């Protein structure tokens, strides 16, 4: 019987600092018995994570995190699968298109950093820090490693945030399109971290065809969690929990260590039933 699960984490296959194998090992050390690897726009680390989980006795659910746009605001969607349907060619072609765009986006951000902030770094150095899916954390770490005396959070809040002139958006996929793509691939779609929704009334997003909501999240206050749990019940959505793990580095205060937030009890059972996972 699975008793404790964290369903939002990132490895070196997107913008995390641990390999899939290291991440699953850490999850095991932190007393999880089920987890999901949710790299951005990529399932490249899933098979490695599953294999490690089988060796260590921890269940790994295939998953990824998709960046979408709703009413001109970024909305992240978590996609979960209970079998190998995430490997279907149509979905993988879709994800490859997103990853390829991320590379071009990173090149533009690197150029903008020099243009607007006189920060000179090499795109090649940024790309080396990734495993193909390039994201802003790789840029932030390259800035630090290049000798600039800025903290990780300062770089994000001042140079890489959406208000920065250096910022370049991801490829615009509507939230409705993202959900539809996941459902067509036999996955379930979950609204990630509603606490980060600022421009739109969160109730509007709960009205979309999401299957579940990430109600327990590292940046929530207790009141936030209660509000989201009540909304999930009102709109008939199941709930998930996630630390949004990226790194063990304590300077990253925007994400948690895997296992810091987790599902248990009836909430976990409901989530696993929706995925048709029983044990």
UniProtKB/TrEMBL annotation:
InterPro entries: PHP_dom, PHP_domain, Pol/His_phosphatase_N, Pol/histidinol_Pase-like. Residues 5-70 form the Polymerase/histidinol phosphatase N-terminal domain. Pfam families: PHP. GO terms for molecular function: 5'-3' DNA exonuclease activity; 5'-3' RNA exonuclease activity. This is Metal-dependent phosphoesterase (PHP family) protein. It comes from Clostridium bornimense. The lineage of its organism: Bacteria, Bacillati, Bacillota, Clostridia, Eubacteriales.
């Amino acid at each position: 019987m699975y008793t404790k699960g964290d369903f939002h984490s990132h490895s070196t296959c997107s913008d995390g600092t641990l390999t899939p194998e290291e991440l699953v090992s850490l999850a095991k050390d932190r007393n999880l018995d089920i987890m999901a690897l949710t790299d951005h726009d990529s399932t490249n680390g899933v098979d490695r994570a599953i294999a490690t989980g089988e060796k260590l006795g921890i269940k790994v659910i295939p998953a990824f995190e998709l960046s979408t746009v709703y009413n001109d605001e970024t909305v992240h969607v978590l996609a979960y699968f209970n079998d190998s349907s995430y490997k279907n060619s149509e979905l993988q072609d879709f994800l490859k298109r997103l990853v390829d765009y991320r590379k071009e986006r990173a090149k533009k951000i690197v150029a903008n950093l020099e243009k607007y902030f006189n920060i000179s770094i090499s795109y090649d150095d940024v790309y080396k820090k990734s495993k193909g899916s390039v994201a802003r954390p790789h840029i932030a770490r390259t800035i630090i490693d290049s000798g600039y005396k800025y903290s990780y959070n300062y770089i994000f809040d001042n140079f890489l945030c959406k208000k920065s002139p250096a910022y370049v958006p991801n490829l615009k996929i509507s939230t409705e399109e993202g959900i539809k793509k996941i459902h067509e691939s036999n996955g379930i779609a979950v609204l990630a971290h509603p606490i980060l929704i600022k421009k739109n009334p969160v109730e509007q997003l709960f009205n979309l065809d999401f299957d579940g909501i990430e109600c327990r999240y590292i940046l929530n206050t207790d009141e936030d969690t209660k509000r989201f749990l009540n909304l999930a019940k009102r709109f008939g959505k199941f709930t998930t929990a996630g630390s949004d793990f990226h790194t063990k580095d304590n300077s990253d205060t925007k994400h948690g260590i895997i296992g810091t937030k987790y599902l248990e009890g009836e909430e976990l059972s409901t989530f696993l039933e929706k995925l048709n996972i029983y044990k």
